[in-house]
Amino acid sequence: MPMELETGKPTISPHLDDDSSNRTGTWVSASAHIITAVIGSGVLSLSWAIAQLGWIGGSIALVIFSVITWFTSALLADCCRDPVSGRRCSCYTDAVKSHLGGMNIKFCGIAQYVNLVGITIGYSITSAISMAAIKRSGCFHKNGHAAGCHVQNNMFIIIFGVIEIVLSQIPNFNELSWLSAVAAVMSFAYSCIGLSLSVAKVAGGAHSRTSLTGTTVGVDVTGWQKTWNCLEALGDIAFAYAFSTVLIEIQDTLKSSPPENESMKKATSVGVSVTTMFYISCGVVGYAAFGNNAPGNFLTGFGFYEPYWLIDIANLCIIIHLVGAYQVFCQPIFKQVEDWCLNRWPNNKLMKESRAIKLPLFGDYNFSTFRFVWRTGFVITTTVVAMVLPFFNGILGLLGAASFWPLTVYFPIQMHISRRNIRPFCWKWIWLNVLVAVCLIISVLAAAGSVAVIAKDLQTYKPFTSVS
């Protein structure tokens, strides 16, 4: 029986999972969730990241982060069930509790949920920049490329927040498949547009200055700028592959037959492979098009001006994608808080109260006052913070550095060691922990680079006055 539970086979009925839940997810829906989570705003900064690291360093960094993410995600997929009872783990901290326990639970909870909140803030910033870019591209088309055409970002951040308040009322992850599918299509669309424009620019005879080592000290940047920018670029690439934060939550939507860990590994392989293909294409071709002067965001930094309508379509796709991606990352927060409140106050009428409301085209919807108030408050808070700290590349780098080591590397490897009872100081134990140590050093350095860039931006920044 334990083996049946560990492999995820149903034990109650062919229609229900072994915990009596009616899950409907498949590796296809999981792949859509992963692509929605991964091919996000990170792809937009990759040409800039490669410009800092150069042809050699940038390409190697993309491949290494891809392989590490794929490997540790496969390990994490095997940790979706308690090794003793065989029950499902519904969230990342639940998996850590089942396999490691102790202080690891608090460490994981802080790392995961701080990162999830940070990502939602980052996506609010990015979507607003894309909204502003649509308005600016029309201005450039009308008044010429030399025109300033600067616009305030705050209104666009608020618009994004209002949209997310509405979508945040979707009860749970299981009902997000349609939104993730739309968002995944949008991510392909704007990535392909950016790639096509880069290819067209190179084919048109653009001779941007590139090099094996990226930006040149004394020509493009100072020595210190080169150092900090390279470290920040590593953080940006790490952020571009970040989805381990919600892997267990995505896996919890999968049916138990076929075994959910096998379905998740298949989804992970598809998601990471597709992502890497797009990242290398967009990053490398984008660097070839712009060279060492690559903008931080190659669709809103206006490396491209024409055709302006195509730039607008690409930015509209970014906005739609981030609308869905925001939900993928905030749903675990919603579930954790709501479960905790219900356990803390099980008899509270506000917690338990819900009533059916008929919505045109959507049918019956169970409205909860508590869910509406709490989720609305969360979105408003992230919106306000996004208006206070709108630093695109610095925020991406810091989020990537902060989440990569604990959530993508440390916990999956330590849970694998515990689950497999790997003996200390045997060969496998040594190389796994060497990988943990190396990734820790990379994360610390990347975080330092991002903090240095943000600190520099803060010297000239005034809150609530962000301008694109």
From TrEMBL:
The chain crosses the membrane at residues 27-46, 53-77, 110-134, 155-172, 178-200, 270-289, 309-329, 372-392, 398-417, 429-455. Residues 23-454 form the Amino acid transporter transmembrane domain. GO terms for biological process: amino acid transport. Residues 1-22 are annotated as: Disordered. It is found in: Membrane. Pfam families: Aa_trans (PF01490). This is Amino acid permease 1, NEUTRAL AMINO ACID TRANSPORTER 2. The lineage of its organism: Eukaryota, Viridiplantae, Streptophyta, Embryophyta, Tracheophyta.
